[in-house]
Amino acid sequence: MSSEPPPSSSASVDDLAADLSAAATLTPAAAADGTTAKEDPFASHYGDVPIEEIQSKAVSGRSWTKVGDLDEGAAGRTVLVRGAAQAIRPVSKKMAFVVLRHSMSTVQCVLVASAEAGVSTQMVKFATVLSKESIVDVEGVVSLPKQSLKATTQQVEIQVGKIYCINRAIQTLPINLEDAARSEAELEKAEQAGEKLACVGQDTRLNYRTIDLRTPSNQAVLRIHTSILHKFREFLLSKDFVGIHTPKLIARSSEGGAAVFKLLYNGHPACLAQSPQLYKQMAICGGFEHVFKVGPIFRAKNSETHKHLCEFVGLDAEMEIKEHYFEVCDIIDGLFVSIFKHLTTNCKKKLETINGQYPFEPLKYLEKTLKLTYKEGIQMLKEAGTKIEHMGDLNTKAEKNVGRLVREKYDTDFFILYCYPLAVRPFYVMPCEEIISGAQRIHTPELLAKRGSECGIDVNTISAYIESFSYGAPPHGGFGVGLERVVMLFCALNNIRKTSMFPRDPQRLVP
Amino acid sequence: MSSEPPPSSSASVDDLAADLSAAATLTPAAAADGTTAKEDPFASHYGDVPIEEIQSKAVSGRSWTKVGDLDEGAAGRTVLVRGAAQAIRPVSKKMAFVVLRHSMSTVQCVLVASAEAGVSTQMVKFATVLSKESIVDVEGVVSLPKQSLKATTQQVEIQVGKIYCINRAIQTLPINLEDAARSEAELEKAEQAGEKLACVGQDTRLNYRTIDLRTPSNQAVLRIHTSILHKFREFLLSKDFVGIHTPKLIARSSEGGAAVFKLLYNGHPACLAQSPQLYKQMAICGGFEHVFKVGPIFRAKNSETHKHLCEFVGLDAEMEIKEHYFEVCDIIDGLFVSIFKHLTTNCKKKLETINGQYPFEPLKYLEKTLKLTYKEGIQMLKEAGTKIEHMGDLNTKAEKNVGRLVREKYDTDFFILYCYPLAVRPFYVMPCEEIISGAQRIHTPELLAKRGSECGIDVNTISAYIESFSYGAPPHGGFGVGLERVVMLFCALNNIRKTSMFPRDPQRLVP
After folding, report:
1. Pairing mode, if any, of strands B249-251 and B268-272?
2. Which residues of B335-363 are buried (b: 16+ CB within 10 A; e: fewer)?
3. Gap from B144 CA to chain A (nearest CA, Å)
């Protein structure tokens, strides 16, 4: 980018903008003011940068400062920052504010027309008619504001000397970022004051996800993903687990049923893996001792619920065990406590940000995860006066009740309930609701084939899997958990769609 | 597991083994010897452990030692190890060797019949007739061998006191691990000596992948995956990149063509993402500054080649850029040099292991990656007497030639060739062959729609993507690379199938 973008180039960019006509009429800025750029001695201090100048043609050597890196130490320095024009507030013909946002930080930029600063009234006008969310470069001097600001970088503001628009947003965005970032509490408060504030519905948010993603809480939620995954991998790698990749495209088997996505693979019936279960077990048979796997899981469910997605990120592990699935429990215990600790200590600001829009109480967990038998769980329910069938599976309501009673008695939301009847689900773990399930697996082909048949599976369709256990297979067990479910429960979000960048549900395949 | 497995229980396990009859006739071991278990005072020191005893019923408190952890310091100690019986060598009625393998380590176990050791001839017999690859527990005293051994744990062996079979393999495995682990050099040497050794073809290996995976080179190759990924993530996280997940299930667009897997999504035409390109760009539009993504990529290619898979692991990154894709090049440079260094320094043993079966020269790279313009590349070819069309794209042969010339002149296999004509492929990186491709992307909706149309894409099918750029989009660029391709080239493997745990090619969907 040269420091003097010619107005003619700006116009040619606008020529391209057939559906951006509202924005196009605003440039060159000076025109709206009844003057021309030629009459403005500071015309080179502002304007639209033509796309040709940002096409990897030259390196200017200039250095940009990140909005998030601005602090009081920078006061007095001239900086160059790039960000989105989140808010634009004209004060007078001679003064305006532009709040620039980059990543999770914002800074207030001040334009005051004066010959000394090299700022003309045309330039102030240019800034005030920028469309919101346009990408803008600002050069200016960092100063300490006289009063506290709304921007996240509250300590400093920028006294603008130059301002260039890098890429314009359309004049009227389909959703307003301010509306999308509003909390229930703000809405209620406004309503009580007789004021009606706009709120953006879940579906509308998802339709315009690229805007919705810019809200502080969405930025935080999706960055927490990274933190959980990072800790998940770090912990398991420290225990010598091997990260593996298992195929998502698998031969179609009779077990699939309605919940499986079917397709043709070079003419052969195939489907998308509903879990990496068979393959992580085969990896154990393949001599990998203990493995983990992070990858998409596909479930072709028809019903819309607040906690199911058709595509989600599975965190799976499988490991040799010597005698007992308690060996798996120990890994789950260490792993999840380390994840929770990491979030609590290292993601404070992100959790506060989420809390700002979606208030929640922090998840309670113990240093050493509580383990209760199914019987003990039932006993607690009975003592609390809940009627329950003796050896039946716990339904969601009963599960929640156990969760509540455990919280009261042991002060934890996270515990392991094990020794399930019928050994159908030998153990699982739940904070309030079940999130992790796991078990010891069958390691002999005979028993596997027998149980498969009992469950109505045509074992011929999974023969490669079953045969793997006849080539020498160690006893093993493992667990699986959905990343989105962990985020949802840790942050007590009311809808799993909030935890996925581009969620897939039965009705949603775009964007 | 109790310390005294009753022979009757062993029999009941074998009853289950309808198709394991060959193995079944061998237990209880004593029977084959014409004696009965009752006559053997050490009958409790060996036998098959019934599956009921390894069903998470009890925790014995015994402690297992890992084969890989055995060293001279353990000499004199009694240890309990679990592993696969990789080799079984009877010496006499009173003596036998069993080589136990676990993960990437092996140890030789010695059985010598003596009242003092509690070992009977029946027990020696039991060990010698175990099927290869059966999972075995051995308890014994660690000793220093008199002569050097073939096992990886060459410093020590185990004087067996007890041996139990945990899970039997079938008597005749479909492929022999020893054959699968053999190098070309061994085969040639044997042939020269007039001996014919079995070798296992690529397809047969993949059919019985759970056995094939146990070869030292496969163990090493797939663990190198983990190392590459770990460094990929670590480097990008250190640069504040955010790990994201993008949907694999996407609406079917007209650009798909033949190479796309099609399916129905709740009745709507959908397909599997051939790359995360559109979504990682939308993440940038969503305010994430710089993102990376590790996940499966699907390509429904029909032709079989040595370097293409229908499903592979994509390593993708996308980032805001200020002016020039050199900013992306800098990330690629730092990232790949750090990965190569990590492999060279921390994966020495694994690389040696691979080298043992598939010899290769280490990849050459520079501390600061060499950047050459396309013109300079062409010039080098011309000077070397290669005829080449002036501004045409480099074909594979010409690419390889540039690679060879660069290696001769600059002593590196890894360099960045940039400034491609027509800006079609503004730059890419190659060690010998192209492995990484990347570019600055278009950040305005108008130019995007224009270029899309020029490329024959019905832009209506990707309107959500294109519209994202009208809501305020910063200039950005990125790159993508296949994990399997990186492993293949770093280890100079001749077939990409060797780098995938369960590869998918046009003909292969199982196991």
Report:
1. antiparallel
2. bbbebbebbeeebeebbebbbebbeeeeb
3. 27
Cβ-nearest to A446 among B17, B213, B323:
B17
Region of poorest pLDDT, from A315-329, A387-401, B167-181: A387-401
- Overall size of chain B counted in residues: 511
What was the pLDDT predicted at B290? 97
- Reading the block at residue A318, the tokens are 């499988």
Of 1.10.1060.10, 2.40.50.140, 2.40.30.170, 3.30.70.120, the CATH number of B7-167 is: 2.40.50.140
Half-sphere exposure of B464 (CA within 13 A, CB side): 21
Candidates B245, B294, B508: best to mutate against A (most CBs of A within 10 A) is: B245
Q: Do B509 and A249 touch (CB under 8 A)?
A: yes
Looking at the complex, report in whole angstroms how far the Cα of residue A194 sits from the nearest Cα belonging to chain B. 32
Structure letter (DSSP) for residue B394:
P
Q: Which amino acid is at A294?
A: V
Q: Is the model's pLDDT at B36 over the cut of 80? A: no
Helix (H) or strand (E) holding A192: helix A184-192
- Which residue's structure tokens are 């005893």? B53
Query: Using CA atoms, how far apart are residues A46 and A138, in angstroms rounded to an integer?
Result: 9
Predicted ipTM of the assembly: 0.90
Rounded Cα–Cα distance for residues B129 and B126 (Å): 6
* Locus of tokens 């069903």: B55
How far is it, in rounded angstroms, from Cα B57 to Cα A418?
12
Nearest CA in chain B to A507: B266
CB A309 within 8 A of CB A301: no
Burial class (CB in 10 A: 0-12, 13-18, 19+), B190: middle
Beta bridge partners, B272, equal B249
Work out whether the CA dihedral A356, A359, A361, A362 comes out positive or negative: negative
Domains A7-167 and A216-499 share a fold: no
∠ CA A257-A261-A267, rounded to 5°: 105
Cβ–Cβ under 8 Å, residues A412 and A364: yes
Q: Give me the helix-helix angle, A483-490 and A326-346, nearest 10°.
A: 60
- Using an 8 Å Cβ cutoff, are B324 and B476 in contact? no
At A11-70, the pLDDT tens digits run: 332 333 333 333 333 344 434 444 454 589 999 999 999 998 888 888 999 999 999 999
Which chain B residues have a beta carbon less than 8 Å from that of A279?
Answer: 501-502
Distance in Å, alpha carbon of B385 to nearest chain A alpha carbon? 31
What does the alpha-carbon distance between residue A71 and residue A53 come to, in Å, rounded to a whole number? 30
What CA dihedral angle connects A320, A323, A326 and A328, to 10 degrees?
A: 0
* Cβ atoms < 10 Å from Cβ of A355: 17
CATH code that applies to domain B236-320+359-499: 3.30.930.10
Closest to A484 measured CA to CA, from A255, A319, A299: A299
Domain chopping of chain A, boundaries: 7-167, 177-212, 216-499
Answer for the pair B327, A60: CB distance below 8 angstroms, yes or no.
no
CA A226 → CA A150, A245, B317, distances in Å? 28, 19, 14
Give, as one character, the DSSP assignment of residue A424: T
Burial class (CB in 10 A: 0-12, 13-18, 19+), A39: exposed
User: What is residue B139's predicted lDDT score, i.e. its pLDDT?
Assistant: 98
> Do strands B157-167 and B105-112 pair parallel, antiparallel, or not at all (unpaired)?
parallel
Q: Report the amino acid identity of residue B166.
A: I
Q: What is the pLDDT of residues B406-442, one digit of tens each?
A: 999 999 999 988 877 654 453 333 444 666 778 889 9
Is CATH 1.10.10.60 correct for A216-499? no
Chain B contacts of A131, Cβ < 8 Å?
Answer: 472
For the ranges A133-147, A346-360, A385-399, B444-458, which has the lowest average pLDDT?
A: A385-399
User: Is the Cβ–Cβ distance between A470 and B20 less than 8 Å?
Assistant: yes
Instruction: Identify the helix (H) or strand (E) that includes residue B190.
Output: helix B184-192
